[in-house]
Write a structure and sequence with these properties.
Layout: H1 8-25, H2 32-37, E1 41-50, E2 56-67, E3 73-80, H3 85-101, E4 108-114, H4 122-136, E5 145-149, H5 155-169, H6 190-207, E6 217-221, H7 225-236, E7 240-246, E8 249-252, H8 259-268, E9 280-284, E10 299-302, H9 311-316, E11 321-323, H10 332-340, E12 344-346, H11 348-351, H12 354-368, H13 374-399, H14 403-422
Parallel strand pairs: 3-4, 3-5, 6-7, 6-10, 10-11, 11-12
Antiparallel strand pairs: 1-2, 2-4, 7-8, 8-9
Bound molecules: nicotinamide-adenine-dinucleotide.
Length: 426
């Protein structure tokens, strides 16, 4: 299968299943897990805009605040044609688990618009973004819900969100979004943070088994924000990136791809890694992008969309470790197969949490009206990844749980404890 998102039902069922399983393991009181699974708020909004040629068009968007018990909602804003209600709910639920596992004082949220951003001009994209913000305005704010970039959105989109929100309240509110440009209060280090966390997770899981990243063969699906930084940083640790794929297909090199040349080509604007003139093109087309996982490797990093690794990929994947850079890249069936095959999977709610950790640091800087230097931010992201890994690894060893189950249990426990302490209104 291709790396399009799995059916929304499947994604939703999979997060629900993991939360339910964790609730049973924790022996939570009846009704508590149902309360934790249900999203607190789901907003569906209509977004009509005028196109550049004067015609009207209408899109649908969502913002889901899944859990806001431990702090304001936090989660990305996705622009992709496959965005829908259930997928947004499942991604928001995963954010609730992620912020709880990482012990950040935040809740879980997610938003999206069913749209192909590449089919719109920059002015049209700006109009879509501003109208979306107007529709969900009452629910946004630094203490309510703070969006960030995700697939199909970037720092410029966050700048428009910030501007539209600020117009509404009458003064500049940089803290309403994270992942914004530096000139508007963005954080140094935010671009690389998710990829940095993915590579740190890979390094820690190797260390826990008495080995290191140096010399390891890595395959990566996705060469966007997460995949590109993961590739650069892993290469910096002495790993060999032997295969990379994206919407255009797969490139490979047994010796290791020249990541610097690939990044340069991407910055020059080549549409896909297969057009960069780096390595050997071994497959073309989005439907072949998962072929990358069958290349001989030690570590696989799916860093594109959800559902990339299904049964076929799980059977042919050669790596011993899978580090989930994307959200939900393994289908539940693939997860079972990999588990049976003894492949160690580091789950998304930990592996890609460097991004939300840095977003939290950006919020701290915004509250304090300060800007930290890049080394300080990077060091803080890495130290958070390390301390949470220590807890996750110890818990999984002590209770003989996979990292995925251990992470879900720790996340659900933090949420359940917060609910318990706050009590039930009325
Ligand atoms: P991006 O839009 O910058 O890059 C996505 C990459 O995936 C591109 O290289 C694209 O070609 C590739 N891709 C898209 N559809 C594909 C398909 N069907 N088959 C193969 N490749 C495909 O996105 P990103 O910010 O790098 O995010 C990637 C994943 O990581 C998403 O699941 C996102 O939710 C998750 N994530 C991102 C962040 C972040 O800080 N950016 C944080 C946490 C999780």
């Amino acid at each position: 299968m291709t790396a399009t998102d799995p059916s929304a039902d499947q994604a939703l069922t999979s997060v629900e299943y993991r939360m339910r399983e964790a609730g049973e393991w924790l022996k939570l009181e009846d009704g508590v897990i149902e309360n934790l699974i249900a999203p607190r708020r789901v907003l569906e909004v209509s977004i009509p805009i005028r196109r550049d040629d004067g015609t009207r068009v209408r899109f649908t968007g969502w913002r889901v605040q899944h859990n806001i018990t431990r702090g304001p909602g936090k989660g990305g804003l996705r622009y992709h044609p496959s965005v829908n209600r259930d997928e947004t709910v499942s991604l928001a639920a995963a954010m609730s688990l992620k912020t709880a596992l990482m012990n950040l004082p935040l809740g879980g949220a997610k938003g999206g618009i069913a749209i192909d951003p590449k089919s719109l001009s920059p002015r049209e994209l700006e109009r879509v973004t501003r109208r979306y913000v107007s529709e969900i305005f009452a629910f946004l704010g630094p203490d309510k819900d703070v969006p960030a970039p995700d697939v199909g959105t970037n720092a410029q989109v966050m700048a428009w969100v910030m501007d539209q929100y600020s117009i509404g309240v009458g003064h500049a509110v940089p803290g309403v979004v994270t992942g914004k440009p530096l000139a508007l209060g963005g954080s140094l280090g935010r671009d690389s943070a998710t990829g940095r966390g993915v590579v740190e997770a890979a390094s820690l899981v190797c260390q826990a088994r008495g080995t290191s990243l140096e010399g390891k063969r890595i395959v990566i699906q996705g060469f966007g924000n997460v995949g590109m930084w993961a590739a650069q940083l892993a290469a910096g640790w002495g790993a060999r990136i032997v295969g990379i794929s994206d919407v255009g297909g797969v490139i490979a090199s047994e010796k290791g791809l020249d990541i610097t040349a690939l990044v340069r080509a991407t910055q020059r604007g080549v549409g896909s890694v297969v057009d960069a003139g780096v390595g050997e093109v071994i497959a073309r087309g989005v439907e072949r992008s998962t072929d990358v996982f069958a290349l001989p490797s030690d570590i696989a990093m799916p860093c594109a969309l959800g559902g990339a690794v299904d049964v076929r990929e799980a059977k042919t994947l050669t790596a011993k470790y899978v580090i989930e850079g994307a959200n939900g890249p393994l289908t539940p069936a693939a997860d079972d197969i990999l588990n049976d095959r003894g492949v160690i999977v580091v789950p998304d709610i930990y592996a890609n949490a460097g991004g939300v950790t840095c977003s939290y640091l950006e919020q701290c800087q915004n509250y304090a009206h300060l800007q930290w230097d890049e080394d300080e931010v990077n060091a803080s992201v890495v130290s958070t990844m390390r301390s949470v890994f220590k807890r996750l690894h110890a818990f999984s060893q002590e209770h003989e749980l996979s990292y995925r189950r251990a992470a879900s249990v720790l996340g659900v426990k933090a949420l359940a404890d917060a609910h318990q302490l706050r009590g039930l209104h009325p």
